[in-house]
């Protein structure tokens, strides 16, 4: 006499129920070879980066030449935008308050003629 097969285990709340097989029988539970690897926990702390370059000097911010910054500021459309940019740091203020920059900005962004 053959022993009856154990009833299939019900699915947990996290996983959807498996679809029935074409002949109407319940599918067999997946084996370890068929199951996907577990996903990493979202709340798990990230591993710290390797400390191989502990003696390396700190990285410096990239430096843009003043001419390139001036060209960027000339592309701003209003004087209010230039004023906001000049308030960001002293080097921006020096570029935007220089007489050659102000002349070029006024030449490129003339006030509309009314009338």
UniProtKB/TrEMBL annotation:
Pfam families according to UniProt: F-box-like
InterPro entries: F-box-like_dom_sf, F-box_dom
Domain F-box intervals: 63-97
Coiled coil, from the record: none
Biased composition (Pro residues): 1-51
Annotated segments matching region Disordered: 1-65
Superkingdom classification of source: Eukaryota
UniProt protein name: F-box domain-containing protein
Source lineage: Eukaryota, Viridiplantae, Streptophyta, Embryophyta, Tracheophyta
């Amino acid at each position: 006499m053959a022993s009856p097969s154990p009833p299939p285990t019900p699915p947990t709340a996290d996983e959807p129920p498996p679809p029935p097989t074409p002949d109407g029988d319940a599918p067999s539970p997946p084996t370890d070879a068929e199951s996907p690897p577990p996903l990493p926990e979202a709340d798990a702390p990230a591993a710290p980066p390797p400390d191989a370059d502990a003696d390396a000097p700190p990285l410096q911010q990239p430096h843009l030449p003043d001419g390139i910054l001036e060209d960027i500021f000339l592309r701003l459309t209003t004087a209010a935008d230039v004023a906001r940019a000049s308030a960001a740091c002293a080097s921006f203020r020096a570029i935007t308050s220089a007489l050659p920059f102000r002349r070029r900005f006024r030449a490129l962004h003339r006030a509309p003629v009314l009338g």
